[in-house]
Amino acid sequence: MKLLLIVNDAELVNSVHSSQLFSEVQVRHDIYSVDDAVSVNYKVVLISDRIVDLELLPYMREKFREQTLFYVLSEKSSLRVSQQIEPVAHAQDINIIYPTQTHSQIIRHMETILKPGDNADKYRVVAFYGTHPQVGVTSTVMSMASRIGSLTGTKIGVLGLNPWNPGDYFFQYNGNYLDELSTQLANKVLTPSQLFNSMGSCNSFYYLAGNRSIKKQFKYYAEEVRFLIDLAKEVFELVLIDAGAHFDNALSLQALANSDVNFLITNQQGWGHRFWTYSFEQIIEPLGFKKSDFLLILNKYQESAQLLTAKQIAQEYGLPLVRYITDLGHPGILAEREKFLLLDYKDPEYDKDINSLAQTLIKLYSLPLIPKLTAETPKKSIFYRLFGVKGA
Fold first, then answer.
1. Residue pLDDT, tens place only, 160-195
2. What is the pLDDT of residue 385?
3. CA 196 to CA 191: how far, in whole Å?
4. What is the pTM of this model?
5. Which end of the chain is more exposed for a tag (fewer CB within 10 A), N or C?
6. CA angle 43–45–47, rounded 5-degree value
7. Crossing angle for the helix pair 10-19 and 103-114, nearest 10 degrees?
8. Among candidates 354, 347, 335, which has minimal Cα distance to 171?
9. What angle do helix axes 79-91 and 310-317 make, rounded to 10 degrees?
10. All domains of the chain, ordered by start, with CATH?
11. DSSP type of residue 51
């Protein structure tokens, strides 16, 4: 597999060479030196936003019709600009590589997209954690599960593994709770069909509500939690885990140990970073995990001169910020009482934010969109798409 790099980053070029992921690597420092003869010889193209601006992405897709394209966002891209890029890149089927990632993380992300077969042994388990309580982990997990399910038809299971919160308040839950299954899990007699029948259904996903028993909060052991996650992998094509905001228990730690992707959810409250620092330094890091094992989601985001910006928060945590989610205000508070998912309020900004996060996992796991969403429209010339005029 041959790679064309359109970048001005010598260290990235060296890292790509060292990875031996590609049989041949060619480097260009501008788009004008890439003629048709060069473009057809390379199946993968990685483009830097330092060289190619957002407005030229449709042109790049026109030039590289059959290639897999990656668009690397550099530190110069503000978060607002990054989120403006997403709909353009998704419309052109261009994969976005977000800022603040190491070169090895960039290469690993490319490999995941390019060689899905080689990643067939992935767990297909995604875990979500809060930096501190009440940050919106449950609502975010359920919104993402609902959106991915509706877009792809994938059979999605959500496990409530927060020992302090069953998370049963966003819809009329009619299933069992984790504490009701504890004996079967401890004896490893729960079957896949029994797990499925114990779960409640909501929109496009199934949910196992978490623990309600105060006495059992620290009574779950690693082997039985691992057993539960393995059962869920047998039943569902994608498993999302609500692991809460505390890492001092087997439920959350097994979610961390058995997931492909770990999303850390925070908000603009200052104590969130302090709470996370304590957890990371005292529990997570001693177990061998690194900050690079997490991706950041900023929830309930408000633009205010009195609050830290999304970029400042990402810098404070030292983590790649995948997306911020707009604060819904009163609907976010009322949803629990009214038994609604936040998506049900049809807020356009919130809907866009969740859709972007859903697309991240859809692309990561190569989940096929349902047929009505993959119907192609006739392609217009690049001149029409850029300027609204017909080309020759």
1. 999 998 989 888 899 999 999 999 999 999 999 999
2. 44
3. 9
4. 0.70
5. C
6. 175
7. 50
8. 335
9. 100
10. 2-117 (3.40.50.720), 122-370 (3.40.50.300)
11. T
* Residue linked to tokens 């001149």: 383
Are 69 and 47 in contact by the 8 Å Cβ rule? The answer is yes
| Six-digit token string for 7 | 């970048």
Per-residue tokens: 283: 């529990």
Number of H helices, E strands in the chain: 16, 13
The pair of structure tokens assigned to 377 is 């429209």
Question: What is the per-residue pLDDT across 104-131, written as a single tens digit (0 to 9) for each?
Answer: 778 888 887 887 655 445 679 999 999 9
**CA of 83: how far to CAs of 5, 50, 73, 228, 300, in Å?**
23, 17, 11, 36, 16
- Whether the pLDDT of residue 389 is over 90: the answer is no
Measured between its terminal Cα atoms, the distance across the chain in Å is 34
**What angle is formed at CA 369 by the lines to CA 363 and CA 375, rounded to 5 degrees?**
125
Least confident of 104-118, 206-220, 358-372: 104-118
Question: Where do we find the tokens 């094509």?
Answer: 237
